[in-house]
């Protein structure tokens, strides 16, 4: 099966775009003055046979994956994730095969070929890496085909959070608000956007293009500094 990826003429061709969006519905905490995101539903995930609320912490898990809406699973390692999901996700099956992990009833990956990865242009290479490098506790390659991923370090390591379903993800409910240091986009189609909800100010946004990995510490932030540990939400 050949996976073809198409791009809009201008916006999706760019590696990333930083913009200021309209003021959000975030509110200010009267006690601390800190921005508080809008209320959101709890995110419940399975982890080692139990159900955990991610807003209360990951309880030792290193990777959590939204397999589908309402189906979130956390694991102690990427290998454990691949073994569990290779029979449900083409991306997981291909990654398991690439790492030599045998999974009974894994999805058949014969004929699977992802679109070749693009080399960043000279004006977009700062803060951006091609997928296929190997760095950090969770390597860039651990952001498998079909997913948008964020990591809690600037070198694609530490905890890793992945989504497959479209929509806006309120990071406070995933225990990732103001904790994202880097990200990768290995979706089949389209970029994803990070937003920082501000009170009384336009909300800055950072766009991550298809087949791109971005070190958020190398991307300038609208109000000074950089995008490391700034994101309050991710929209696919």
Automatic annotation (TrEMBL):
| Organism in which the protein naturally occurs | Streptomyces diastaticus subsp. diastaticus
Keywords on record: Signal
- Pfam families the UniProt entry points to: Inhibitor_I36
User: What is the name of the protein in this document?
Assistant: Secreted protein
| Signal sequence interval, chain numbering | 1-26
